[in-house]
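Here is the promised in-class demo. Please do not try to memorize the tokens; focus on the logic of going from shape to residues.
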């Protein structure tokens, strides 16, 4: 397992092709050959803080006019009637968003040296977040 720190995203030109890459810094110097090996990528996504149902679950907002007052960005009804008399578990409501562990499979290494690794594509997390690269063992 290789511990990485995300530095930045750039465009990499390789054999006449334009490849978007993310540049990572290695914490330890490793001289393993990383080409031709498939990897799992583990990282933490950016935290978005406490967010409402419209941002968190893409709920539709309510009418701005036509008699609506003070309920423009509310989630609406959250339960049924007297029969269940409660709100069911797993109801989509406002809460903390982001900050989840993300796993991406089949990562391709474009370039590497003693200190840097260039991985193809974009990856979750802010700059200098700690990430992990692990090879797939079958």
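The designed amino acids, position by position:
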């Amino acid at each position: 397992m290789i511990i990485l720190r995300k530095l930045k995203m750039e465009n990499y030109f390789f054999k006449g092709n334009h490849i978007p890459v993310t540049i990572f810094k290695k914490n330890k110097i490793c001289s393993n050959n990383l080409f031709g090996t498939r990897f799992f990528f583990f990282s933490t996504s950016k935290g978005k803080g406490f967010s409402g149902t419209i941002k968190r679950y893409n709920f539709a907002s309510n009418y701005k006019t036509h008699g609506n007052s003070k309920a423009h960005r509310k989630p609406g009804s959250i339960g049924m009637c007297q029969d269940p008399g409660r709100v069911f578990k797993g109801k989509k409501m406002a809460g903390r968003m982001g900050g989840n562990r993300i796993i991406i499979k089949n990562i391709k290494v474009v370039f590497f040296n003693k200190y840097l690794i260039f991985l193809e594509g974009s990856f979750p997390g802010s700059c200098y977040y700690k990430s992990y690269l692990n090879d797939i063992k079958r």
